[in-house]
Amino acid sequence: MQKETINRRHFIKLSSFTSGSLVIGFMLPGLPALALSPADCEFFQPSAYLKIDKSGKVTVLVGKQESGQGVDTAFPMIVAEELDVDFKDVKSEIAPYGTLKEGEHDTGGSQSVMTMYDSLRKAGAIAKAMLISAAAKVWNIKETSCAADKGEVVNTITMQRIKYGELVCQAAALPVPKDVTLKNPKDFKLIGKAEKRSNLNDILTGKTKYGLDIKLDGMLFAVAERCPVLGGTLVSVDDAAAKKVPGVIKVVSYKGTGAPMHVRAGVAVIATNTWAAIKARKLLNITWDEGSKNNESTEELFKTFAAKAKTKPAIEVFKKGDVSSFANKNEITATYAQPFLAHATIEPVNFVAAVNGDACELWGGLQLPDWTVNTIAKECNFKKEKIKVNLTAMGGAFGRRLHFDFAIEAVRIAQQIDKPVKLIWERADDIRFQPYRPANYHLLKASTDDKGHLAAWQHHVLGTPVAYMTEGPNTKHPEEMDGADKGFCYAVPNILTGYTPVDFNINRGWLRSVDICVNTFPVESFIDEIAQQQHKDPLDFRLAMLENKPDFKTGDDPGAMTQSPARIAAVLKKVAEKIGWKEARKPNHFIGLATHSFIFAKSYAAHAIEIELLAPKKFKITRVVAAIDCGLVINPDGLLNQMEGGLAFALTQTLKGEITVANSRVVEDGFFSYELLTYAEMPPLEIYIIDSKEEPGGVGEVGLSTVAPALCNALAAAGNRPRNLPIRNEGFSWVYA
Amino acid sequence: MPSFKLNVNNTAYTVDAEADMPLLWVLRDLLNLTGTKYGCGVASCGACTVMIDGNAAYACQRPVGTCVNKKITTIEGLSADGSHPVQKAWQKAGVPQCGYCQPGQMMAAAAMLEKNKKPSEETIAEVMSNNLCRCGTYHRIKKAIHIAIEDINQ
Q1: pTM for this predicted structure
Q2: ipTM greater than 0.90
Q3: Could you tell me if A597 and A603 are in contact, meaning their C-beta atoms sit under 8 angstroms apart?
Q4: How far apart are CA A401 and CA A345, in angstroms?
Q5: Structural domain that includes position A549
Q6: Which member of B42, B82, B137 has the closest CB to residue A204?
Q7: Same-domain pairing of A411 and A506
């Protein structure tokens, strides 16, 4: 097994990318480049991104990892558009690891469509050009006399047609063109039309294989007990009782790691089935050395935040004008806080590893497989080229599988047994040993001039940065300031923002919408608060600082992102119009607004939320209106699904999501204590898509950040402003339709 | 090790397992029917929902010893090809994102509709709130259930 699979990595020889353009042009080694006889070729594969078989079926090889965001449909749509095939003849498969250039498998930051759009279009167009060339040769006519249509090449002189499938062998023998003409977007037939997920039927019949569903010959199952305190070590383990459980094969221990993944020291039970391992684990008698950092708590952490907030930020992030001249002048001050959060994917993290001498083979869902391989090579002493990865579908990711602590654990366990092992994290492990979204605290100050215009804005963010974990406490850039840095969207003449890192002994990681979500809640709440205090309309107050303001760069380097106040204003105006902001409201009904840009995915979204107040702190969400501008939309159905899901995800953390820590241990241990939004709690949602010709942006994370501030602004309009999430902690309760 | 005779998806199986092994792990680890998902093991998420004698049941809460002489249906047996009205409705509504919880969601919906062909909104909300979806596909689940209701009442 090992030898064969390791070699498969080299089966396809890559050509190099040139200046960010595209791959294209690797050939299958062992096959001659020319003069193929039809019998010799199974399919036509002009690039890493697609292949066409003799029946004309197109398989798009998706290089980004599917976790529900819909790349397995958007990518095939982009390829099929340029290839001119019926979408029903297109299926998607996971691009095998190693067939793309380093970094191209990386999936996160809502970057997939944005970064791959051009390459996928070119891949489709090149395949089409080669099929046309092949047909032109068959007919002995010029290529310009041929056209492509629905999976066939048409002879425009005779109107004869040849199916793509009949041309695959001839096309495979042709040189890959360096350059091709792409369609004019106005001629798009597929991009922009709603399509169902490409592998929908596999999901609906239970056939989709997620990491947890992998089963190999002779494979064993493992669960692990981990040191309750991060950084602690194993002193001793008594496994006598555990080993007596029928089905248990072996008990092994493994060491923890430091940065980047902070694997905890652990003891794993390996058994012939998961249940035996789970039962035996409970019988382990382990003594840990917890180390010195075993008495930290979130209660103390937030006290530390509050104390440090009063001092100057450790890192000055963005300065414009001079805020000091406005100090204490009509000053408004507020603090906001948000807790640690867990990703809580319904498929708990898991991983399969098989070690055979100096080679290692892996199976599972990973958002960053290259970093995983590089780190495992280092931590577990393998040569990189001896590690073979098989990527699987993911039962949710939301940033959890950007981290690969579980993969390192699986390899350490598999290094101690001569069979493949599947490591399963139980739900309690998942909630208690996460890379958590950092806890954070915000001190905001604002001053207005004599006309009530916002004259000075100060934002001090305090947090427990992810970079302290992934890079170590000496990192140069711990600050998590997207949305509160130079990209701050409101035109205020004097601004000062800064960040103060605070270390804390639990692991942290990136959660869907990352620091944009962290900073949009305080920024959009505080803007609203200032408007309220000034007796100004919160919509008009915002628009005066957004409309007619030019786009600006957020840095000096050529790759710096662009902020677009006009597009931020446009989504805000859209939700205000659709919810009837300027119209009379029903008794006891209140509306809150919030807008933002998800700047590094070039997308913009706003929410307007209407509540009915039933008691001073009891409410019902009666309407949610969202607007999104993500440039050109590839698959509107996928976009809507992401916006719907974004609302559920954001409501979970607005209403009730919270991880607390006592004695350096996470208190919550499952869905009873870390509750997720339920079916009954999901409020109605209307979504408006801004018609845009801008380049496509990302959509996976854009529907979250404005939900909390919009809801809190509605509650503030009703009389009580929540400044700490989840709002349940401030005594709010909700009923649902 | 004791041996148990099970009827899963109208197929007779004999499994060697400890009597306390939950049906979930029997299905997944011993019978390789991995369409039934592990989410929590403690009846908090619904990912492992199957039908036992037509009733929705959490497979993680049913020791295999209690499953003998019962008719067990998993997502693999709901239909051979995705043609059950609930699966067709899920297809039409384009429900899934990651899809991991969806077998459990569909089994819960199918069991509900077996008992009650015209459930009220309240009943639907009560039943379906036992099944968590972290991707947040609840609107589409609702839409799909209404499509299925229309289909089975025609």
Answers
A1: 0.94
A2: yes
A3: yes
A4: 10
A5: 312-341+436-735
A6: B82
A7: no
